């Protein structure tokens, strides 16, 4: 069985759907043999979580590393001062997840939407903020 998606940042959505006792998605597909999830991009954390908590084989075209998180000390593209400004505006855009869902700090945007793991300054939309790439129109 081959499943297709665009992105997985934390792996939570995949694992929740697979292991949910109400939907039994994992149980439903248990008898079909090997299950592959092909995505455009996945973080290392998502790849590990999916491998640890499901029998799905994740096959990303692009794997994102710790340095792709703009808040990581391994990210060479932003200074500490710039990271501070991103967090400041991130709190305005989304006070609960100023670094994106799961604190992923990613800059991933697709033509059709921006994942919630992306910085909220890019995708959040409310009375006090309008990102360039709103998730829902």
Give an overview of the whole structure:
With 137 residues, this protein is of the alpha/beta class. It folds into 2 domains: 2-64, no CATH class; 67-130, no CATH class. 30% of the residues lie in helices and 21% in strands. The chain contains 5 helices and 5 strands, in the order E-H-H-E-H-E-H-H-E-E. The strands form 2 sheets. The protein has a 3-stranded parallel sheet with strand order 1-2-3. It has a two-stranded antiparallel sheet with strand order 4-5. A hairpin with a 2-residue loop joins strand 4 (125-126) and strand 5 (129-130). Helix 1 (12-19) packs parallel to helix 3. It is elongated. The relative contact order is 0.16.
Could you give the topology of this structure?
Elements: E1 2-8, H1 12-19, H2 25-29, E2 35-43, H3 44-53, E3 56-64, H4 80-93, H5 120-123, E4 125-126, E5 129-130
Parallel strand pairs: 1-2, 2-3
Antiparallel strand pairs: 4-5
Helix pairs in contact: 1-3
Descriptors:
137 residues; 3-stranded parallel β-sheet; 2 domains; 21% strand; alpha/beta
Distance, first to last CA: 32 Å
Strand content: 15-25%
Overall number of strands: 5
Multimeric state: single chain
* Overall domain count: 2
Using only C-alpha atoms, the radius of gyration works out to: 16 Å
Determine the structural class based on helices, strands and strand pairing: alpha/beta
DSSP helical segment count:
5
- Percent of residues in helices comes to 25-40%
Q: What is the typical, i.e. mean, pLDDT?
A: 93
Strand order, main sheet: write it out: 1-2-3
What is the overall shape?
A: elongated
Q: Point out poorly predicted stretches.
A: none
Query: Biggest sheet, open or closed, and with what strands and sense?
Result: 3 strands, parallel
SSE string: EHHEHEHHEE
């Amino acid at each position: 069985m081959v499943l297709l998606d665009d992105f997985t940042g934390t792996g939570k959505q995949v694992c929740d759907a697979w292991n949910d006792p109400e939907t039994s998605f994992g149980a439903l597909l248990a008898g079909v043999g090997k299950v592959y999830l092909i995505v455009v991009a996945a973080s290392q954390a998502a790849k590990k979580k999916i491998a640890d908590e499901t029998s799905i084989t994740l096959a990303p075209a692009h794997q994102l590393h710790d340095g792709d998180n703009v808040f990581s000390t391994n990210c060479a593209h932003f200074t500490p001062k710039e990271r501070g400004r991103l967090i400041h505006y991130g709190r305005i855009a989304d006070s609960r997840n100023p670094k994106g869902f799961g604190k992923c700090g990613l800059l991933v945007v697709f033509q059709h939407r921006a994942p919630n793991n992306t910085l909220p300054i890019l995708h959040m939309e409310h009375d006090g903020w309008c990102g360039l790439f709103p998730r829902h129109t």
